User: Which sequence fits this backbone?
């Protein structure tokens, strides 16, 4: 079985049509109020911080846990490689603007109900589009790693801490 299906050859008409479609989408987002994303809480992730916290609420047990984990990721990214910071920022931008897109609506991910946010992330995890699966897995792993790296969460999973130094 061939892993890469035969794709139609690119044409000038498809290229121009795709560019026009992107332009219309950008103008629609501007008119619908999708830019800017809101007040900046930090220097690392800026306005994308709200999207990160909303996604973390789906994967973590409580709102406070999501806020603490988002603070941890935000602090870490402030000192991280700018390329990594930009990659996370771009993933959050894609989630924010495409996560709420449905057949009859176009809403920001951070403005959806918690139930709808969970549905969106679940569908992105099972998506046939690799980008959506990567965004889902990256945010999920960041949430869980950040949350369970805190010593106060270890008792909940039956872990008494590292054995080194005992």
Assistant:
């Amino acid at each position: 079985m061939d892993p890469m299906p035969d794709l139609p050859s690119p044409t000038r008409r498809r290229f121009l049509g795709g560019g026009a479609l992107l332009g219309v989408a950008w103008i629609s987002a501007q008119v619908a109020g999708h830019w800017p994303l809101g007040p900046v809480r930090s220097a690392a992730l800026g306005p994308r911080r709200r999207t990160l916290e909303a996604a973390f609420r789906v994967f973590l047990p409580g709102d406070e846990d999501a806020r603490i984990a988002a603070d941890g990721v935000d602090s870490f990214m402030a000192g991280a490689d700018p390329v990594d910071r930009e990659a996370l920022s771009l993933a959050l931008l894609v989630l924010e603007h495409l996560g709420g897109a449905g057949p009859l609506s176009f809403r920001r991910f951070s403005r959806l109900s918690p139930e709808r946010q969970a549905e969106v992330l679940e569908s992105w995890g099972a998506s046939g589009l690799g980008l959506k699966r990567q965004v889902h897995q990256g945010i999920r792993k960041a949430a869980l790693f950040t949350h369970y790296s805190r010593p106060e969460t270890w008792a909940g999973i039956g872990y008494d801490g590292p054995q080194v130094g005992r």
About this structure: The chain has a mean pLDDT of 81. Helices lie at 12-31, 49-59, 63-78, 82-98, 114-125, 130-148. Residues 56 and 62 are 9 Å apart (CA to CA). The two ends are 54 Å apart (CA to CA).
